[in-house]
Design goal:
69% helix; Globin-like; alpha/beta; Transcription Regulator spoIIAA; single chain; 3 domains; 15 helices; 332 residues
Length: 332
């Protein structure tokens, strides 16, 4: 029994062989220098992502926290509360590296490379004590593996958050509602419409109609390369919702290919006013609100002519816009 107890005591590194902590404290500066040298010579260091002084500072903090956590935990597991500070710091630098554009391999090998620095020094310190060396190496290797897993897991989680935020930003940027004139809005649509994006597009348009009091919305699909039944239904729903809010829609940017596809699919867009180009849609929108786009020479003629001729021309332009408006109302 005494022999068995003595064997158990010899195999417990927490009580008899705290060599890792002693090594981290005694040869602290040497370990950091060798670790940084290994990173610089590995070809994985990119000074455009992290300056050397920041790399040294992070490495020094990790070595200090590692020694303190091992000592406080009495050679306990990495999941013990004594390693909370170290885990939090690893999560912090892993998130920062994910934001800066590090690869998962670069993120993991940074921590795991500490093994290449420390194990030769540990073997040098424990030369002649093979049992203690094996025990210490196994403990430290297991500890570094778990630290590397923390770095990788938090890196993946951080990248997912970044991608999700970028997707949300792109969704918002892909449905901009622009006020081009008093009571005239335009919504350029680029890419493919899915249900989520179509819903966001409709909400943005309706909200802008209410805020600006606009009565005309131009939906430009110049950037839509393909048209199917799903996309057409989304457009029809958007037009219908805008009409319920008191705004009329003009669909512009209908290419010949999309026009042929609509005919083949039997999509009914007779209730929507269409124009080939956005400029034509803007011109029509001006006419629908009683305004007309005229050349600069015509404006000069109005300003230089008699009052009677100017009033006559203005009346003709106003009548032309009114006729467009009445025709649009009649069709609806």
């Amino acid at each position: 029994m005494a022999v068995e107890n003595r064997a158990q005591e010899e195999s417990a590194p927490a009580q008899d062989t705290p060599h890792v902590v002693s090594l981290l404290e005694k040869r602290h500066d040497e370990i950091i220098s060798l670790w940084i040298k290994d990173r610089l010579e590995s070809g994985e260091f990119r000074d455009e992502l992290i300056p050397k002084k920041d790399l040294r500072r992070q490495s020094q903090q990790i070595v200090d926290m590692l020694a303190r956590s091992i000592k406080d935990s009495d050679y306990g597991e990495f999941e013990s509360p004594a390693f909370d500070e170290l885990r939090a710091f690893l999560n912090q630098i892993s998130h920062a590296r994910a934001v800066k554009g590090y690869t998962p391999l670069e993120n993991a090998t940074y921590i795991l490379s500490l093994r290449n620095t420390l194990l030769p020094l540990l073997a040098e310190e424990l030369e002649g004590n093979s049992d203690a060396m094996v025990s210490e190496m196994m403990y430290f290797t297991k500890l570094l593996d778990k630290m590397g897993l923390v770095m990788v897991e938090n890196y993946i989680r951080s990248r997912e958050e970044i991608i999700r935020q970028q997707r949300q930003d792109m969704m918002e940027l892909s449905t901009p509602v622009i006020k081009v004139w008093d009571k005239i809005l335009t919504l350029p649509i680029i890419g493919t419409l899915d249900s989520r994006r179509a819903q966001l597009m409709m909400e943005s348009l309706l909200q802008k109609i209410v805020q600006s009091g606009s009565t005309i919305a131009i939906l430009d699909i110049t950037g839509v390369k393909t048209m199917d039944t799903l996309v057409a239904n989304h457009l029809i729903k958007t037009v219908t919702a805008a009409r319920l809010m008191g705004a009329r829609c003009i669909l512009t940017g209908v290419s010949p290919a999309i026009a042929q596809t609509m005919v083949q699919l039997g999509i009914d867009l007779t209730q929507i006013t269409t124009r080939a180009q956005m400029s034509d849609g803007i011109r029509l929108a001006f006419e629908m609100i009683g305004r007309t786009v005229v050349p600069a020479k015509a404006l000069a003629h109005l300003s230089n002519g008699t009052n009677a001729s100017a009033q006559s021309t203005a009346a003709q332009l106003a009548a032309h816009g009114a006729s467009i408006t009445e025709e649009q109302k009649r069709r609806e």
